[in-house]
Amino acid sequence: MAKSEGEGEGDVKLIGAWASPFVMRPRIALNIKSVHYEFLQETFGSKTPLLLQSNPVHKKIPVLLHNGKPICESLIIVEYIDEFWSSSSPILPSDPYDRAIARFWGSYVDEKLFPNLKNIRSAEGEARAETIKQVIDGFVLLEEALVKSSKGKAFFGGDEIGYLDIALGSYLGWFRATEKMAEIQLLDESKTPNLCKWAHAFSSHPAVKDVMPETDKLVEFGKQIAAKMLAAAKQAT
């Protein structure tokens, strides 16, 4: 990772896990700002005392520890990083309206798109077909948002990665893993050509490529999670 500019950086730690799309968000933001940080990995199925102490409300990752002070919730952490290291590479748009639009779509991604993505793996029959349709319809909406926000540039943020790029792009690994596990196509060039180009550009960006999980590793991890959940369900009955 690039060396930090250093000014006012302090002690920066991030509590997270390699496979979490939510943890990817602050990692990308810190990379964009060239901030050096220590990555403290959590293990799936357990919570360290540091995590429980740092996030006693939700007890979940990610948590940014900046000079010992915890900041929780992925997109809140991204905003904090952008505000604290504000001297270069802005993440949120400068215009208040553009900021509001970026936050709106960020909420849409978390509240609508990702829950449907998770449901694909468990749904069956007509319910599964409807869930897949909802995900694809969501991508069509985001295709329109990309055209408006990017103004012909590569990213939602324009020439460089911005807030909505991070919010949506953090899920790309799991989109690809879900496509492979479910043998479906969610990102389709015939329906969302600009979004497909964006996905490639985002994944190849220097701030992203080293923290984007490999699809096959996510597929294997997803299978392990499913097996553990199935075993736990059997024990409960």
Structure characterization notes:
The chain has helices spanning 21-32, 49-54, 74-84, 96-120, 125-150, 163-169, 172-182, 193-204, 215-236, and strands spanning 12-16, 38-41, 63-66, 69-72. A four-stranded mixed β-sheet has the order 2-1-3-4, covered by helices on one side. The protein has 237 residues and is α+β, with helices and mostly antiparallel strands. It has nine helices and four strands; from the N terminus they run βαβαββααααααα. The longest helix is centred in the middle third of the chain and has 26 residues, at 125-150. The protein is globular, with a radius of gyration of 18 Å. α1 packs parallel to α3 (74-84).
Q: What gross morphology would you assign? A: globular
Beginning-to-end CA distance, first to last residue: 47 Å
Number of helices: 9
Percent range for helical residues?
Answer: 55-70%
Order of helices and strands: EHEHEEHHHHHHH
Number of strands: 4
Rg from alpha-carbon coordinates: 18 Å
Helix and strand composition category = alpha+beta
- In what range is the share of β-strand residues? 5-15%
Major sheet, described briefly?
4 strands, mixed
The whole-number mean of residue pLDDT values reads 93
As laid out across the biggest beta sheet, the strand order is 2-1-3-4
Q: From the structure provided, what is the oligomeric state, counting identical versus distinct chains?
A: single chain
Q: Would you identify the regions where 5 or more consecutive residues have pLDDT less than 50?
A: 1-7
